[in-house]
Amino acid sequence: MGSENRGESEKTSDGSICGHDSLHRLLRAKLVPQVFQEVSRLLLGLNCGKALEELALPESATSLSSKHGFDLQGFSFEADKEQLREPRIVRVGLIQNSIAVPTTAGFAEQRQGIFEKLQPIVEAAGASGVNILCLQEAWTMPFAFCTREKRWCEFAETVDGESTKFLQEFARRFNMVIISPILERDVAHGETIWNTAVIIGNHGNIIGKHRKNHIPRVGDFNESTYYMEGNTGHPVFETAYGKIAVNICYGRHHPLNWLAFGLNGAEIVFNPSATVGELSEPMWPIEARNAAIANSYYVASINRVGTEVFPSPFTSGDGRPQHADFGHFYGSSYFSAPDASCTPSLARNMDGLIISDMDLNLCRQLKDKWGFRMTARYDLYHDLLRRYTQPDFEPQVVSDPLLHKEAS
């Protein structure tokens, strides 16, 4: 999650924006085509000098979207044609979803309801030929980490637990890598709980895991009640479809976190999240896109959707009266490319699957164009960070010698 509060600015209670389910669709409806095209250019950028093309998705996927009522969108990122390398096209999918049954239901019913809700969406991804699929943060449960009630820890499971087994079947069936962010129970270390992303290979094998590096203590999001900062570093997972990494939720607010995944060679970084409120929504379209630009990789941003009401009211320690929900998770999942282009986002008020073709050659092309890796001064940053971590650190500030001189 990000720096957020519960207050929301949308004018309708269903999570839409003035009756439209996304900013892009609102603009399309309200602007004449020529103006809409120019506004889209400014908001979404251009990929290799032109607007992103929409993908033609198979009827089997679109029919699942219609039948089960989830948003389905697809776009294609291109790279310049090279003489010595063939295109490296990877099809990536992101799923955002609301919970399936009320939080007052039994935990087994809640989890099974989410499994059943996600099955047709995963099926649509498989039918569309998705190579890498990522689910939202803590997808198997309501985002109960505001409540500070320990009973929600029951949703924690081992890396090879029920949710992994559920997804392994799809990974094998569709030859698809799946990123599954769960609440992990580390049995080997005294039942410690982590916020973890499990990487399932396209043969159904478990490639590895990454634990959330940065834990928020902002507003309702006091997540350190349940888990603390992860201990897996910044791993990049080499898969059949490219080198991927997972920057879980609040880590998107930390530029060095993004940088570290890039230094380890990531080509696509996934950011499964759960975020609400006025404080984070203006940041949502910016941070991941900036990370893609600065680090010359693709970023895939996922946010859950809907309002989750809990049985027991809770407080945030910020002076507001007790309340029983975070506010509205505004969805809006999208992709960003290293050339500053990005897709429109999914709806902010309904489940969804967004799919993108990515030519991974674009990553190196942008490194060559901008030279960020070559022109960075890692030696200077290293020296500053080394000194900053010492107790006797003194900032490098040069004061005007006349600043504190008494007026004559």
UniProtKB/TrEMBL annotation:
It comes from Kalanchoe fedtschenkoi. This is Beta-ureidopropionase. GO terms for molecular function: beta-ureidopropionase activity. Residues 90-360 form the CN hydrolase domain. It comes from the Eukaryota. Its EC number is 3.5.1.6. Belongs to the carbon-nitrogen hydrolase superfamily. BUP family. Pathway: Amino-acid biosynthesis; beta-alanine biosynthesis. The keyword Hydrolase applies. The keyword Kinase does not apply. Keywords: Hydrolase. InterPro entries: Aliph_Amidase/BUP, C-N_Hydrolase, C-N_Hydrolase_sf. SUPFAM superfamilies: Carbon-nitrogen hydrolase (SSF56317). It catalyses: 3-(carbamoylamino)propanoate + H2O + 2 H(+) = beta-alanine + NH4(+) + CO2; 3-(carbamoylamino)-2-methylpropanoate + H2O + 2 H(+) = (R)-3-amino-2-methylpropanoate + NH4(+) + CO2. GO terms for biological process: beta-alanine biosynthetic process via 3-ureidopropionate. It is an enzyme of class 3 (hydrolase).
